[in-house]
Amino acid sequence: MKTPADPVRDYLSAVEREASALPADRRQELLADLAEHVEVARAERPGITLGEILAELGDPRTIAATALAEAGNGPEEAPAGGGTGEPARRGKVHPLVPLLMLTLSLPFVMVFSESPGPQFGLLFRIAGVVLLCTSVHWTAVRKTTGVLLAAVVPSVVIASWNLSDGGPTGDTPALLANLGMLALLIATSAWLWRNRRP
Fold first, then answer.
1. H-helix segments, the chain
2. Can you give the pTM of this predicted structure?
3. pLDDT tens digits, residue range 122-169?
4. What is the pLDDT of residues 38-76, one digit of tens each?
5. Residues 68 and 21: beta-carbon distance below 8 Å
6. What would the pLDDT profile of 35-45 be if each residue is shown by its tens digit?
7. Per-domain boundaries in the chain
8. Calpha distance 124→131 (Å, rounded)
9. Burial letters for 172-195: b for 16+ Cβ neighbours within 10 Å, e otherwise?
C-alpha cells in the first residue's frame, strides 16, 4: 500500500542529503530551523500552502551550499538561484554589524539633532534592518521580533511624538524618553546576539 507523500519530510531529506558534508550537529540544527520555519509559517499564515512555504525557503541545494560555505566545508561562493553561478550574499556580514547599526541609529540622531544627523540615523536603521533580515544568523521569528522591537516600535513612537503634542516636552522628559528607547534598542540587540546561530 502506497503512503501519501509528505512534502516537508521530502524537502528536509533533500536538504540533509545535500548537506551531508556538514557536521551532524550543525546539519540537525539546520533541519530543525527549517522545520521550525515551516511550522511558524503555517501557524501565522493559515492561507498559505505548504508548497508556497517550501518555495519561499528555496532550493535545498542552495540552502545546503550556503550552510557548507558558512561552515567552511564548501566553496567560498555558494551558488544562488538554483545554481546559476551567482555568488550567495547571505551570511557574509558579521552578526554584530546589523545589531550595531540598529542600536547606534538613535544615539546618532540624539547627538546630531541638526541635519544630517536624523537622515544618517534613519539610513543606519534601514541598513540595519536589511542586514538583519538577510542574515542567516537568526530564524525568521527572531528576525521579525528584532525588526519590530529595534526599528518599527522606535520609529512609530518617535514619529508619534513629532507629529502630535503628546510627546515628552522639556529637556528632562525628552532625555528620559530617548534613554528608554535606547534601552529598548540595546536590550533587543543583546537578545538577538545571545540567540544567534553560530
1. 7-18, 24-44, 50-57, 60-71, 96-111, 117-134, 140-147, 153-163, 171-194
2. 0.50
3. 787 888 888 888 888 888 888 899 889 888 888 788 777 777 765 566
4. 888 888 888 888 888 888 888 888 888 888 887 765 444
5. yes
6. 888 888 888 88
7. 7-87, 96-194
8. 10
9. eeeeeebeebbebbeebbebbeee
